[in-house]
Amino acid sequence: MRVLTSCLGERIANTMSEFKNTLLVTGAAGFIGSSFVAQAVAQGWHVVVLDALTYAGHRENLTWIPQQDAIELVVGNICDGALVSGLLNKHHPRGIVNFAAESHVDNSIERPSEFITTNIFGCYTLLEAARQFWNGLKDPQKSQFRFLHVSTDEVYGSLGETGKFTEKSPMQPNSPYSASKASGDLLCRAWYHTYGLPTIVTNCTNNYGPRQHPEKLIPRMITCALSGERLPVYGDGKNIRDWIQVEDHCHGVMLAFSKGLPGETYGFGGDAERTNIEVVSTICELLDVMRPRKDGHSYKEQIAYVTDRPGHDRRYAIDDSKSQELLGFTRKYTFESGIRDTIQWYLDHQDWCQAVSKESKAA
Fold it and tell me: Which of 83, 108, 195, 239 could be bridged to 176 by S-S, CB 3.0 to 4.6 A?
């Protein structure tokens, strides 16, 4: 993997890359993006990664991938239009896949400005750079180019006890995070309808799997349990999420990029709805077997209910029948197989978890 550190405003020479099957993937040193990169290079793509390497992005998320010669990491910010344009002109990618985002709801409540900057202005900057690049292309390159924006089911707000979100559900975001992501979705729609830029938006349910930052529910519960800390569960613990294993999600994103129609939105779910307390209890039960406490007690004794966070949506779930029918989307993992594999990965990589946690506190 080659690494290029770029400062704000740096321009990159306008030279054609020797690689023809190239993707520009933003935010790909993060949890979901790095999983996508692994799948892309395994399929023969050359991937240029643009990542600011904030607390959630780490080179180590990419170095485990066997095809290192197919990955180039550029350290920079998606809000830097000159940098993005330079990368497009240098590498002439077949498309942009945008994973870059501030994504932790609690952080968005405390520091919303960072989410507005990255998730709205950053998306706009990418769209404008892509539009200028795309306008200069000629067919067949122009007709093949795609701009894919990875979003979340949280843009749709909160579900009742029944039903699921679909691509036609109205946007009703309830947190600064989800509002900023909804803004990015709408910008993509506008750039398609106004300028003809071939944009595609994907929305997914909660992801889990290896290398997820310990601020998220599943890795946080695993790491807190192993360190003997309390397992904080918001409110009554009955908020419901649909969980998708990260590899299944990234499989869907690649299908949307390669088979999806410009201007369309595609949803991906895990068909695995669980209350938060069910997820935490499952983790405890598996850890009781896979890494028993020295005192012989269950990890469930560490569960502690805490004050609910503001604007906490009650239930999310996505009906992904459109993606199944039109893209051929299928899932490899059940929640039972995925969560067991995930726990085993964290048991085998506790040093990684500790290092990431220290970096986050330092940042």
Answer: 108
Q: Find the CATH number of the domain harbouring 14.
A: 3.40.50.720
Residue 168 placed within a domain: yes
Total domains in the fold of the chain: 1
Which H/E stretch holds residue 46? strand 46-51
pLDDT, one tens digit per residue, over 277-292 is: 999 999 999 999 999 9
Domain carrying residue 165: 2-209+244-273+315-334
CB 273 within 8 A of CB 242: yes
pTM score? 0.92
Measured CA to CA, the distance from residue 178 to residue 316 in angstroms comes to: 13
4 exposure class (CB count in 10 Å sphere: 0-12, 13-18, 19+) = middle
Active site amino acids: 153-154, 177
Structure tokens at 83: 């940098």
Residue 269 lies in a domain: yes
201 assigned to some structural domain: yes
296 is a domain residue = no
The neighbouring-strand residues paired with 46 are: 22
pLDDT in tens, 62-95: 999 999 999 999 999 999 999 999 999 999 999 9
Query: pLDDT tens, 139-190?
Result: 999 999 999 999 999 999 999 889 999 999 999 999 999 999 999 999 999 9
Angle, CA 256 vertex, CA 265 and CA 95 arms, to 5°: 105
Amino acid identity at 285: E
Task: Let me know: does 257 contact 93? Beta carbons within 8 Å.
Answer: no
User: What value does the mean pLDDT take over residues 88-113?
Assistant: 93
CA distances from 171 to 118, 182, 262, 319, 358 (A): 20, 7, 20, 15, 36
CB proximity list for 194: less than 8 A, separation 6 or greater: none
Instruction: Answer for the pair 35, 247: CB distance below 8 angstroms, yes or no.
Output: yes
Q: Locate tokens 């795609």: which residue?
A: 146
